[in-house]
Amino acid sequence: MILLHNLILPAAPSLLQGGQYTVSLHFTHSEAYRVCGPAGSGKTTLLKTLALQYPIQQGALSLFGQTITPQLSLKTKQLIRRRIGILTERPTLCDRLTVFENIALPLHILKTPRRHILRETMAILKWLTIEHLADRFPKTLSSSEILRTACARVLVARPTLLLLEGDTLASDEYLHFLIMKNLYNFINTGCSVIFTTRHDDTMNGLLPPPALRLPYIPKQPTSSQDHLTETQADTFQPTAYKASSV
Amino acid sequence: MRHFSLISRSLIHPRLSILILFAALSTFWIGLGIAIDNQTTHLLHNWERRLTQTALIVLPINEAKNLQVLTQSLQVFHGVSDLHQLSPSDTNHLLAKWGTSWPNPTPSIIMFHYKDDNETLQKTIKNISPEATLIPSSNNKSYFSHFNHSIKTMAHVIMFVCIVFGIILFFPILYFSLNFTYQIQRSQLLQLHQLGTPAHRSYQSIVIHFTISCLLGGIVGIILLLPALHYLINIIAPLLHRSLPVSFLPFALTSSSAISTIYLIPVIQAVIGCIGSWFFYRHNIHAMP
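^ inputs. structure came back:
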């Protein structure tokens, strides 16, 4: 479903000499994956690249069988974007729309019938226990309320590919619990989920081992197997672990 | 939830008062330029017609008895209008202009407008009064064409300057308004873009907003232009010995097909606003990552 071949992505120069790394991966349908790496290692960039929010510098990316090239028409790109849901560290909402309208927006873009929009939006508001915020505007919300609203907007359109920043989710325990509890349901409906976490053990037991460990230079390497040295990092090729279903 | 306007409402729509004002001023100047050129052409055409179609009949003193008959015959003659006998002072004035010394009593001179064949007129006059002399006024044509050309050139220059000024007022403001609006809406447009909104649905409401603003500005410009034109006509008409327009000015203007084009200026501005905003937003949205 998703194929990355020799895709060059940027990383913090303090972590990796040259400030970029090459990645080749294959994500399949109805699976959950985990990408680990420290801050600045390019996790968010990877997610944004997969969500077509970051231009491809070099290499090849294929999403849902469609090769992403600069020549690809905007119409096709928008069709692909509508199948992807991304929740990043700093979610943005439309300030001029209420919480309800913000959540309904992806369905409106998909030209979903009004009756269906009302039903789906109300359902997700209740599920995330934010129905009392329906008529509020984003500027009046707390950061956790914004996060839940953004999460609802991501999930309401039932995306085929769900890209989540695990650490962002972890900041709201209830939201984290809900997502993890329903991960099976997402996958069973044909959705692939990619999580990013800073630490390997963040979701141990909940998710399979990391599909990708992004490069970083530890201050005091304990073992050559666990961490990369500076020389190794220069020529680092991320290992893609075969992920198992959750 | 107002379902059908979610995309539109997610965007900030700033008030385009400056664009409306400048579109109005642009319409005013372009309209004024067109009106000046058109009215000058119309006026010159009238003058030319008067001069080239004005004929004189000079009757020697011994033929004065035929004056009544000649006048009556010409009054019913096809193509003759505005027939009158010159007063003795006008006759002397005219003869002085011709540089002819004429002993008293002075001959009788009949002046009239004639727009048909001169030969037929000549024959008719000769039948009535063999001594009468017909003087067609074609001699004035060469003098008038030079004058006409100068006035027309001047009117064209004024029109050109007014139109250029109008364009200068409109296009940069349109561009700045588009750019300003885009900068305000950029983050929202980016959000809509990342949610997969089709490009045309993102900027549809903006294009409509700009089209209406340009049209509104144009209409305001026309509303300002009509009293201004009326005022100008009021000032100039007595100087040109012309009567004031009887009908209400907006309808008086529509009677002339060329000048009625000023009513199209708001529509043209609206079309430019529509196409301009459409291309501007399309280009910028396509350039988004």
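Strands of chain A lie at 2-10, 20-27, 32-36, 60-63, 66-68, 84-87, 161-165, 192-197, 212-213. The radius of gyration of chain A is 19 Å.
thumbs up if we can close this ticket
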